[in-house]
């Protein structure tokens, strides 16, 4: 963000190839558009991102398709909660109610990797819906496409969502809801600890609605297909969270209505 007036926006440099020199937010957006890249806010609404993305929600770069949304991790932490942090999940709902089709990706702070790191306990994982494992030589495009279109779910690892749809439409897709509003959530779940509950979260552009499904009957190390009826009349988006008895969980991206 410090390009001087006599430095071009883009140049070819020996040993590096194409090099961008970014001077402002418009040029950063142009870079993302030219390179088909994705941007998002890290640890939104806390730490160095306190107050963001709310403060730039009307900016062109934020409304652009190149700005994917925000990243989630379990901060702040409170062992009295039934779930991990709702901070970015609430932002996810807010962004949808703002009328923006954004997504939330898992993030983790990995400063070092040594034989002493206990990584599994801290890391969140993004499971992408891909037809096949991309070849390294083919580049990142299949990965970026899956993320850009919301074809993934986030998990701490103990709860998995092998399949998910509502009336046949999956995450990132658009569902036409019948006039009655009647719909059926279909989920295949795999889990380690007994499950606690699922929550079907939806919004109408202003309010957020939560329909909780109790899953206390489940046992450890299970897998099952679930079908839950839900009324989505007047709603504009919907997603699902699932949490276990130890507050581990997984959540889908939005289905747009």
What does this structure look like?
There is one protein chain. The protein is built from four helices and 15 strands. 13% of the residues lie in helices and 34% in strands. It is mainly beta and 257 residues long. The strands form four sheets. Strands 6, 7, 10, 11, 13, 14 and 15 form a seven-stranded antiparallel sheet that branches. A three-stranded parallel sheet has the order 3-4-5. Strands 8-9-12 form a three-stranded antiparallel sheet, with no helix packed on it. The mean pLDDT is 95.
The separation of the N and C termini measures 38 Å
Strand count, sense and closure of the main sheet?
7 strands, antiparallel
Proportion in helices = 10-25%
Task: Look at the helices and sheets and give the structural class.
Answer: mainly beta
Dominant shape: globular
Q: What's the helix count?
A: 4
One letter per element, helices H and strands E, the order comes to EEHEHEHEEHEEEEEEEEE
Overall pLDDT, averaged? 95
Low-confidence stretches: none
What is the β-strand count? 15
Strand content: 25-35%
Q: Which radius of gyration do the C-alpha atoms yield? A: 20 Å
């Amino acid at each position: 963000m410090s390009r001087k007036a006599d430095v071009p926006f883009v140049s070819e440099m020996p040993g590096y190839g194409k090099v961008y020199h970014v001077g402002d937010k418009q040029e950063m957006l142009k870079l993302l558009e030219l390179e088909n890249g994705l941007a998002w806010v890290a640890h939104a609404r806390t730490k160095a991102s306190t107050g963001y993305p709310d403060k730039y929600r009307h900016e062109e770069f934020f409304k652009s398709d190149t700005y994917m949304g925000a990243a989630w991790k379990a901060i702040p932490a409170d062992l009295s909660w039934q779930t991990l942090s709702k901070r970015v999940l609430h932002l996810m709902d807010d962004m949808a109610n703002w009328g923006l089709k954004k997504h939330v990706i898992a993030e983790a702070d990995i400063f070092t990797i040594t034989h002493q790191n206990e990584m599994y306990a801290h890391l969140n994982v993004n499971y992408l819906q891909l037809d096949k494992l991309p070849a390294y030589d083919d580049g990142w495009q299949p990965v970026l496409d899956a993320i850009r279109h919301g074809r993934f779910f986030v998990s701490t690892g103990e709860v998995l969502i092998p399949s998910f749809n509502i009336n046949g439409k999956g995450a990132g897709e658009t569902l036409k809801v019948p006039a009655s509003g009647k719909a059926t959530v279909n989920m295949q779940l795999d889990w380690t600890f007994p499950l606690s509950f699922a929550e079907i979260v939806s919004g109408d552009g202003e309010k957020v609605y939560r329909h909780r499904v109790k899953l206390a009957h489940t046992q450890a190390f299970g897998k099952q297909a679930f079908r839950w009826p839900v009324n989505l009349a007047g709603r504009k988006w919907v997603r699902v969270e699932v949490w276990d008895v130890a507050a581990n969980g997984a959540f889908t991206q939005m289905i747009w209505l």
